[in-house]
Design a protein that fits this description.
Radius of gyration: 20 Å
CATH topology of the largest domain: Tumour Suppressor Smad4
Helix content: 10-25%
Largest sheet: 6 strands, antiparallel
Strand content: 35-45%
Number of strands: 17
Number of helices: 6
Structural class: alpha+beta
Distance between the termini: 45 Å
CATH architecture of the largest domain: Sandwich
CATH superfamily of the largest domain: Probable inorganic polyphosphate/atp-NAD kinase, domain 2
CATH class of the largest domain: Mainly Beta
Number of domains: 2
Strand order of the largest sheet: 7-6-17-14-9-10
Oligomer: single chain
Length: 289
């Protein structure tokens, strides 16, 4: 049964001025099926024949959002859709493309399939980081991949303590620590030695970044179990980031409470989407040497 997508939002990566033909091709294909609203991540960028609207306007007024870029572009679109039930599809113009899994070379046929109602649906959960100073809530942000505490300067260790459910897990010294969702387990956490978690799991992983203690290992916890992060006594300042954005300074009197967010993201995939095939392709598991 054909999908009822009367309007489609297109979120494009910030270097699209260099790929004007690509974005024009995508908008022309989408325009055959629905009204198209475009947001360029570099909002001040002027593209001939294409008007870039504010992201809030695009996600508020459409039935489907498509990201055109890499996983970073899709993450930006996903966070903007956190409190909406609008589905999201990723066309890959980046490098790896774990999330943006539709190849640009094949996008036209996949768009036709999606509009015809032939696609698979997957739900992914966000995490929310509540930032407290002197026990007063001062900021809240969400992330689809991960929330990271790290040193404000390169090549410097920080000390931090992590608790969950009111119980101390550990006090560590490292370059930082990643709290990752299953979605983010194939991102920064993977390069830090974290586990790959299937997207259907309701789990979070705590992954240290270059820990000083060689016996330190990632820990996997239930996603409904809150995680609290504080600086240790030997560290006065650090930074926290959400999906690599919204960075804030963390001081001794601060704490970050990380919980599973209440709303889900709806991801659309090609009908023949296979998660393990994506892993084999992106991680070269089936390569011949």
């Amino acid at each position: 049964m054909p999908a009822n997508f009367k309007s489609i939002g297109l979120v494009v990566r910030s270097d699209m001025q260099l790929r004007h033909e690509s974005i024009k091709k995508v908008t022309d294909v989408l325009a055959r099926h629905a009204e198209v609203l475009v947001h360029c991540l570099d909002f001040n960028l002027k593209l001939a024949e294409i008007s870039s609207l504010p992201l809030e306007r695009v996600v508020a007024d459409v039935d489907l959002v498509i990201s055109l870029g890499g996983d970073g572009t899709l993450l930006t679109a996903a966070r903007a859709l956190a409190d909406k039930n609008t589905p999201l599809l990723g066309i890959n113009l980046g490098r790896l493309g774990f999330l943006a899994d539709v190849s640009f070379d094949d996008f036209e046929s996949y768009i036709d399939e999606v509009v015809a109602g032939r696609y698979s649906v997957e739900k992914r959960f966000f995490i929310e980081g509540k930032f407290f100073e002197n026990d007063k809530l001062v900021a809240t942000n969400i992330a689809l991949n991960d929330i990271i505490l790290h040193s404000p300067e390169s090549a410097n260790m920080i000390e931090y303590e992590i608790s969950s459910g009111g119980e101390l897990i550990h006090i560590q010294r490292s370059d930082g620590v990643i709290v990752t969702t299953p979605t983010g387990s194939t991102a920064y956490a993977l390069s830090g030695g974290g586990p790959i978690m299937h997207p259907s799991l309701e789990t979070l992983a705590i992954v240290p970044i270059c820990p000083h203690t060689l016996s330190n290992r990632p820990i996997v916890l239930p996603a409904d179990q809150p995680i609290e992060v504080r600086l240790g006594q030997d560290t006065q300042l650090a930074k926290v980031s959400y999906d690599g954005h919204s960075t804030r300074l963390v001081k001794q009197n601060c704490r970050i409470l990380i919980t599973r967010y209440g709303e889900l993201l709806t991801l659309l995939h090609p009908e023949d989407y296979d998660y393990f095939e994506v892993l084999r392709e992106k991680l070269f598991w089936s390569a011949s040497y």
